[in-house]
Amino acid sequence: MNTQLPPQDQVIVLLNCDDLIANTFMQSNLGGRTLKRYANPLLFFADWEKSNFNLVAIVSQSEVLGTGGISLLETLVNKKQISVPFFLVSQQLSESTVRLTLKAGVADVFKLPIKKDNIEIRLPFLIEKWDALKHANTVPDFHKYKTPFIKRVFDVFFAGMALIMLSPLLLTICILLKLESRGPIFYYALRVGSGYRTFKFYKFRSMYVNADKRLKDLKHLNQYAPAAEEAAESKAEEAYLCEECKAAGTGCQFPIYSDTIQWCEKQYSENRKAKAGSAFFKLKDDPRITKVGKFIRNSSIDELPQLWNVIIGDMSIVGNRPLPLYEAEKLTTDKYAMRFMAPAGITGLWQVEKRGKGEMSEEERLMLDNKYAENHSFWYDIKLILRTIPALLQKESV
Fold first, then answer.
1. Residue 291: CB partners within 8 Å, gap ≥ 6?
2. Band (282; pLDDT cuts 50, 70, 90)
3. Confidence class of residue 386 from pLDDT cuts 50, 70 and 90?
4. Which of 131-140, 223-232, 295-304 has the lowest mean pLDDT?
5. Residue at 50 is within a domain
6. CB–CB of 35/29 below 8 Å?
7. What pLDDT, on a 0 to 100 scale, did the predictor assign at position 166?
8. Are the C-beta atoms of 65 and 155 separated by less than 8 Å?
């Protein structure tokens, strides 16, 4: 990339930036460089490949492990061969996440609220010095973990055979889900796996598509006072967005997708935890879960679509469970980062260890994840699979 052209011929791209952030950059003195703004990376890729303008920097507003964070940088470097400085504008930052971004090759990170003075000093400097800095500090390989050939062959063979053998069951579940309720058969959420890579994590849908809106239709089942019913109805009608996403001002950072339907996974998870032990709105048998959904949840059949994740290489049969974005953001310290240097898997060490031993603390689970990352091998995986089979016969489910 020729960065020696006059500044007015150089282009800085803004991705996913809201109006406030975009205006701050546009009002900054960037040495006469042109700013181009795109609502998403796909629009940028199409325009850049068509016009081939002199791109000198990319600024993305996203959380570190969000879709516009280091996973986007991976796509830029490895698939699009774009090696200009990449900047992040994020709401949630800590010392460990900043350290992670720099190791991943991010040029710099701006924490909200963003300051124009910082932009004017840091952006032009890094653009002008990028070639020297890039050669001095080579951007590390994102794929620190490489799936061994024998493990990959086993994964594809095992998952392929499982899908073939279970195809009558899978087809039956698809038909039953369609017959019982309107809506898509599958949904997906973004998960973080090996090397902090994000991917689409598939499951069977087990709830009605308008699950939370149905709360207001279920108030006659509430065991508590009318005031609580009114509060529950009011809360059900609120925009389904967590406080962190509202503060970021860019929409949902942790979406769950099902065709054209979208939920905020973090808010959904928090609400489920709150309602589990709350007298605010208590239902003995939650009618939002379909009958088929209850069965596939209790039997873990809703997890079977993850075999497709194995086929396409996002996951392995054995590995550490991939985490939601908001959980993975918290595990970037040196103590627990090791878990991400192992494959993401359907089953693993902590699932086997947990069976029949009651509740397992988060600390114990993370230590087992680290232990697997340090010791995993093909034959170790075979041993865990053999241990998983008798574990599945025990009453406790994970």
1. 180
2. very low
3. confident
4. 223-232
5. yes
6. no
7. 94
8. no
| SS3 per-residue string spanning 254-310 | CEEEECCEEEEHHHHHHHHHHHHCCCCCCCCCCCCECHHHHHHHHCCHHHCCHHHHH
pLDDT of residue 389: 65
**What is the DSSP secondary-structure string of 108-136?**
EEEESSP-HHHHHHHHHHHHHHHHHHHHH
Q: Which contacts (CB < 8 Å, 24+ apart) does range 73-77 have?
A: 73/104, 73/105, 73/106, 74/104, 74/142, 74/197, 75/41, 77/105, 77/139, 77/142
How many independent structural domains does the chain possess?
Answer: 1
Average pLDDT of the residues of the chain = 76
Helices vs. strands in the chain: H and E counts, helices first: 16, 12
Burial grade of 51 (CB within 10 A; 0-12, 13-18, 19 or more): exposed
Assess whether pLDDT exceeds 70 at residue 52. yes
CATH of the domain at 45: 3.40.50.2300
Task: Specify the higher pLDDT residue, 274 or 111.
Answer: 111
Say if CB 100 and CB 88 are below 8 A apart: no
| Pair of tokens at residue 67 | 């879709």
The answer on pLDDT for 269 being more than 90 is no
Nearest to 232 by CA among 246, 220, 241, 244: 220
Q: Is residue 48 part of a domain?
A: yes
Read off the pLDDT of each residue in 60-77 and give the average, rounded to a whole number: 86
How many Cβ atoms from other residues are within 10 Å of residue 94's Cβ? 14
d(CA 367, CA 215): 39
Q: Is residue 280 part of a domain?
A: no
Q: What DSSP designation does 92 have?
A: S
**Cβ-contact 319, 344 below 8 angstroms:** yes
Rounded to an integer, the average pLDDT of 51-70 is 88
- Is residue 313 included in any domain, yes or no? no
Tokens for 387? 């241990």
Beta-bridge mates of residue 344: 320
* Residue-range definition of the domain harbouring residue 92: 7-136
pTM of the prediction?
0.57
Q: Which of 69-83, 259-273, 284-298 has the lowest mean pLDDT?
A: 259-273
In total, the chain counts a number of residues equal to: 398
Residues 6+ away with beta carbon under 8 Å from 140: 103, 104, 105
